[in-house]
Amino acid sequence: xxxxxxKEIDPRERRVALVPESVKKLTAAGHEVVxxxxxxxxxxxxxxxxxxxxxxxxGGAAAAARGAQVxxxxxxxxxxxxALLDEGTSLVCLMQPAQSADLLKHLAARRVxxxxxxxVPRITRAQSMDVLSSQATIAGxxxxxxxxxxxxxxxxxxxxxxxxxxxxxxxxxxxGVAGLQAIATARRLGAVVSAFDIRPAAREQVQSLGAxxxxxxxxxxxxxxxxxxxxxxSQDEQARTAAALARHIRDMDLVITTASVPGRPAPKLIxxxxxxxxxxxxxxxxxAAESGGNCTLTRPGETVVAHDVTIxxxxxxxxSVPFHASQMLSKNVLTFLQHVTKDGxxxxxxxxxxxxxMAVTHAGEVRRS
Length: 369
Ligand code: NAD
What we know:
Layout: E1 2-5, H1 20-28, E2 32-36, H2 47-52, E3 56-58, H3 61-65, E4 70-72, H4 79-84, E5 90-93, H5 101-109, E6 113-116, H6 131-150, E7 158-160, E8 163-165, E9 169-173, H7 177-188, E10 192-196, H8 200-208, E11 212-213, H9 235-249, E12 254-257, H10 272-277, E13 283-286, E14 303-306, E15 309-312, H11 322-340, E16 341-342, E17 345-346, H12 353-358, E18 359-362, E19 365-366
The structure holds nicotinamide-adenine-dinucleotide.
Pfam families: AlaDh_PNT_C (PF01262), AlaDh_PNT_N (PF05222)
Family: Belongs to the AlaDH/PNT family.
GO biological process, one term: NADPH regeneration
């Protein structure tokens, strides 16, 4: 089977869908891997490493995509890239399916089978294909570093000849994959960490990382879906959450917010009043910026200062750690490709729990968005 790796066209997207280590596994399994020249360069995977892994090269996207049974990339394709795909090709990438209705129609019309990486089911069997988890891990780690870099205070406790410094207080709101990694990272930097989530399972996970759990009385068994995700809170629950967060947040030096509800705008948990109550020089890093943000003052993609508090709202953080983000993403893509390959060829079994969930277009139809 010929698998092509395209170079991302947005210069801010520095990740690559398959790194040389994964390419080596694919070529060893008898597949032909064609890499668009320079596809891994922005993530520090040079062409020479792909060559050593058994890849061949194409000078541009058109040549790379021609004749491929599978095209792997990171971001959803542009119209120009869709036009390069042969009829019947399979495409594996992040698809943002809920915002891509026209793109999916376009892909279906070209009879492309498109797999949306973000639709991998959150089940144990699919964990090694789970890009949401792998990339959220990167985001949670980097969020703490971004916050620490903006903070007016140091994170660790220090006892020096120039005096003693008390550790910073870090508060993580939303203790899913990104939040738990943020807790671990802030603890490693020496901060005193607390966290809040509405899902009951989060409490023990937070405490096992050495952080304290805030407002445990607000955790509710009904806050979690069968799939382990949070549900949107009722108005009454929102008001009680806001009151608890307002009490806690005013003493914090660094707040990392990661709260989101799949398919919904991020809940607004930090109001301007709460920001104004925080210590001057403190920082909020809003990891929910992609879905609107958890703070009412957040401007996605920007850093703003309000009431002497810096609010950082980065977009696509994983692309800012391109080497390891690509390495992890590539492992997810490789495992998915191995999952859908039978006897050396890609087999689309829509009855399979993983394949069926991720296939957004197949045989000329848009299956889900
Ligand atoms: P997410 O990105 O959808 O949300 C981040 C966190 O925000 C979640 O923990 C959520 O409970 C929390 N949240 C939502 N509304 C909130 C509010 N109003 N206040 C405070 N917190 C709020 O979630 P995620 O990190 O992608 O994953 C969530 C959970 O899914 C995991 O912790 C786990 O239980 C499950 N999961 C399972 C697998 C697997 O089994 N393969 C893989 C990944 C995740």
